[in-house]
Design goal:
Blueprint: H1 4-28, H2 33-41, H3 53-69, E1 74-80, H4 81-84, H5 90-97, E2 100-106, E3 112-119, H6 128-142, E4 145-150, H7 155-169
Parallel strand pairs: 3-4
Antiparallel strand pairs: 1-2, 2-3
Helix pairs in contact: 3-7
């Protein structure tokens, strides 16, 4: 009878361990749309700003300036890199898929031409420099300009930087036929 108590405790510990393992496995398995709907229906959601105040001020400055850069340019906010870049290397794509750009300028045909990152106060926390380096390199390899705007940049300087970056990203003009 002296062994019943330790055996009971061991059995309970094994049962709790098994329950925890099953719970972990259940959470790691993908959930389907009906499960997602049930979870969403029982949860609370609140809207939040898409951009910080400083990012929004920058957005408005660039948005107002774009028509002066040429026809058809559009400004997007919080764009997923996985939506604008592709790679035949699945591992490389996973590295950028969930990363977001603060802003992105697209051309008349919807192609990305200029990625803009706002480096405001407190931006470089944790591994932010490494994350930005990944973004910068993937964009460089895809032929998309990358522009960092800092808190000290004034609107006139921002407009100048954006114009110059768009000009660098434009393809060279086609050679004209030589008249004889």
């Amino acid at each position: 009878m002296d062994y019943l108590l330790p055996l009971s405790i061991l059995g309970l510990a094994l049962l709790l361990g098994l329950a925890r393992l099953l719970t972990r496995q259940r959470r790691s398995t993908p959930i389907d749309a009906p499960d997602q709907l049930r979870i969403v229906m029982r949860s609370r959601f609140d809207r939040q700003r898409l951009l910080s105040r400083a990012e929004f001020d920058l957005f408005r400055t660039i948005e107002a300036h774009l028509p002066k850069c040429g026809p058809g340019y559009r400004l997007m906010a919080q764009t997923s890199m996985g939506e604008i870049l592709s790679s035949p290397d699945a591992e490389a794509f996973r590295c950028i898929n969930s990363k977001r750009l603060d802003m992105l300028i697209i051309d008349t045909f919807g192609f990305p031409i200029l990625a803009i990152e706002h480096q405001g106060n407190g931006h470089y926390q944790g591994d932010a420099p490494a994350r930005d380096a990944v973004k910068r390199e993937a964009l460089r390899r895809a032929g998309v300009e990358y522009l960092e705007i800092f808190g000290h940049h004034q609107p006139a300087e921002i407009r100048q930087l954006v114009t110059a970056a768009i000009q660098r990203g434009k393809p060279p003009p086609a050679p004209t036929a030589i008249a004889r």
